[in-house]
Specification:
The complex is a heterodimer. By secondary structure, chain A is mainly α. Chain A has 15 helices and 2 strands. Chain A has a two-stranded antiparallel sheet. The chains are: A mainly alpha, B mainly alpha.
């Protein structure tokens, strides 16, 4: 069963089924959301930092869902957009003395333009050729960032230190906790925007392109426009994620944005269930928590254990967290006798 | 002019490495229709096996043949255990599987043989080839080996029944099944062949880049680029692509002022993507017509 099947099936379901499914979905969303809201009160600062990173990766993975799951294009180059967002934010804050609420949207806009422009050559490529083009972008980015010519701005190999902002209005909140809430708010905003976008003309155009490009263009969907737009939107979102990461970590350096980051985001997408936006959070949690767990299981073999975990997940749930969530939902429904 | 010719020669020498790798990549692409991101790590592991056998006192060619044979079996085993169950899932899931395999092999090699850099012997020696300072005997030998492998593959795919069956299983699995070809085993065999070629590539490359778990990082990337540039469906194209990439990379490093050397790799990649934009099927491949 492919993602496409389930995505289209949802829209053809009878209304009653939707209504019933929505209740379980709603309860789950409210539970997750309230958990996210109170989490910082319950745990230590380091864990709050990890939660923040989960949400940031969640934003980047969500943007991959839009690009891959909805418009059917493929990217191994999102670490590059993440890097551009992080550096743009860092440079605007440190060299431009902008406050972060202004720097973040600007960084997003820079990434949107960058992604939009990158979308043009990508238009001619598909499948492995697109994979290669995006892969190249990810490989090239750290080398550009290290380049001596821009060292005055980027800090070259050394990177750039960013001052962590304090909580405003005299709020007595720890920096990390404040940044956690900022990140969460940005993520929820982006999530809402994405949902609206997907249920609009644009989202339908993307789906049509994904399912059959030729048919879509025969129906009058402007392929150039919508495919490059998908790259732009996805890059812009990832860029905002990158900017948040830069602020939260307080430091940007070229080697943090290697191809490994791209690979990880990709894995996060697959583990969440391609095209399912709430899965981003599950995928991101996997990326942050599983390497730690692997490290505890075996220091020397941490990479191998991480790989084994990935294989376990894709063997058991090829549809990722989405499949697991559907199974759980139907199980709950059966238990509650509302079958 | 002399500088130019020298750079081209040096490019051909490094190109031979990429050609070797590209050949292995195209092989597996022919049988499974996706890029194998773990290909480089598989080759690295095979090279370590050859090294280990030599440490235990095996002669070079004995270790060479044993490592290639073990890799062949290992490739089949990986397909049977790991990728057979993933058949029928989406390409994205399979790519996640490749990334996982990459990480498993890399970490295991690091644990077994640690991350220190080890020299690897060459059967051809490292003396300058015919007195030229740019190509060593080893690099000349590597080009010959690549040519031999290519000739063998050509003959295998062109003149044997098994080769024909492999090609049929890759291009049209359904029809191949109907005429009685065991498609599942053909895919496994493709994996085995690719792993074996990867082992040859690794053993040939190791004396140049030295042996360590991350030795294949950039080689694999160049191999991909070469394979895609040559057209994924054509082994000869992949070899030609390898040499082109090697030469381009060297020329970009020499002739583009200031940033040329620092950005050798991005420049080569940008050139190749430009080529692909104009010839989406690669230089020697055919653009696949799509049935609507």
């Amino acid at each position: 069963m492919t993602v496409q099947d389930t995505a289209s099936r949802r829209s053809t379901d009878p209304a009653s089924v939707i209504g019933r499914r929505l209740t379980i979905e709603r309860i789950a969303s409210v539970l997750v959301l309230s958990l996210l809201l109170i989490a910082p009160m319950l745990v230590k600062t380091f864990i709050v930092f990890q939660f923040t990173m989960i949400i940031i990766y969640g934003i980047a993975i969500m943007s991959l869902h839009l690009l891959t799951g909805w418009s059917g294009q493929f990217s191994l180059g999102h670490s590059a957009f993440f890097a551009v967002g992080a550096y743009a934010t860092g440079i605007l804050m440190e060299h431009g003395n902008l406050p972060y609420p202004a720097a973040l949207p600007l960084a997003g806009a820079v990434c949107f333009i960058f992604g939009f422009l990158f979308g043009f050559p990508a238009l001619r490529l598909s499948g492995i050729y697109l994979a290669l083009a995006t892969f190249s972008l990810a490989i090239a980015m750290p080398q550009f960032l290290k380049l001596g010519t821009f060292e005055a701005f980027t800090g070259g190999v050394q990177g750039l230190v960013i001052t962590k902002p304090d909580a405003p209005f005299g709020l007595k909140l720890n920096q990390d906790i404040w940044l956690y809430y900022v990140t969460l708010a940005v993520a929820l905003l982006l999530y809402g925007l994405s949902l609206n976008l997907l249920h609009s003309r644009t989202g339908r155009a993307w789906m049509a392109i994904r399912d059959n490009q030729i048919a879509a263009s025969a129906m009058g969907v402007n392929l150039t426009m919508y495919k490059t737009l998908a790259f732009g939107v996805s890059a812009g979102m990832t860029g905002i994620g990158g900017g948040l990461a830069a602020i939260v970590v307080g430091f940007v350096a070229p080697d943090a944005y290697s191809i490994t980051l791209s690979n990880n985001l990709f894995i996060g997408m697959v583990i969440g269930g391609v095209g399912w936006l709430p899965g981003s959070l599950a995928g991101a949690a996997f990326l942050v928590l599983i390497p730690n767990l692997s490290e505890q299981i075996s220091k020397g073999l941490a990479g191998a254990v991480f790989g084994v975990f990935i294989i376990l997940v894709i063997f058991l749930f090829p549809g990722g967290a989405r499949q697991a969530a559907q199974l759980t939902a139907s199980w709950i429904r059966r238990l509650s006798g509302r079958h | 002019m002399e500088l130019f010719i020298n750079q081209i020669l040096a490019g051909i020498a490094t190109g031979a490495i990429y050609a070797c790798m590209a050949l292995a990549i195209v092989m597996i692409y022919q049988s499974i229709d996706t890029l194998n991101f773990a290909q480089g790590e598989m080759a690295m592991f095979s090279t370590f096996i050859a090294w280990q056998l030599m440490q235990w006192g095996m002669p070079y060619w004995g270790a060479f043949i044993a490592a290639v044979a073990i890799s062949f079996i290992g490739g089949i085993a990986i397909e049977r255990i790991l990728f057979r169950p993933l058949q029928g899932t989406s390409v994205l899931v399979q790519i996640a599987g490749f990334i996982a395999l990459f990480s498993i092999i890399n970490a295991s090699a690091g644990l077994i043989w640690d991350f220190s850099i080890k020299p690897f012997p060459s059967p051809f020696g490292s003396a300058p080839f015919l007195g030229s300072q740019l190509i060593s005997n080893h690099e000349a030998g590597m080009i010959v080996v690549t040519a031999l492998v290519l000739a063998f593959l050509y003959a295998f795919f062109r003149f044997t029944r098994l080769g024909l069956a492999l090609r049929a299983a890759a291009t049209m699995p359904e029809s191949a099944r109907l005429v009685g070809i065991n498609v599942g085993w053909m895919i496994a065999l493709g994996w085995g062949l690719a792993a074996a070629i990867g082992a040859i590539a690794g053993i040939m490359i190791a004396p140049v880049v030295f042996l360590e778990p991350n030795m294949m990082g950039s080689v694999l990337l160049y191999g991909f680029v070469a394979a895609v540039l040559g057209g994924m469906a054509s082994p000869a194209g992949a070899v030609a692509g390898g040499f082109i990439v090697g030469v381009l990379e060297n020329l970009a490093g020499t002739y583009i002022p200031k940033i040329g050397n620092e950005l050798k790799l991005p420049i080569a990649l940008a050139l190749i993507i430009t080529v692909l934009v104009f010839r989406p099927g690669g230089l020697f491949g055919r653009v696949q017509a799509q049935r609507v």
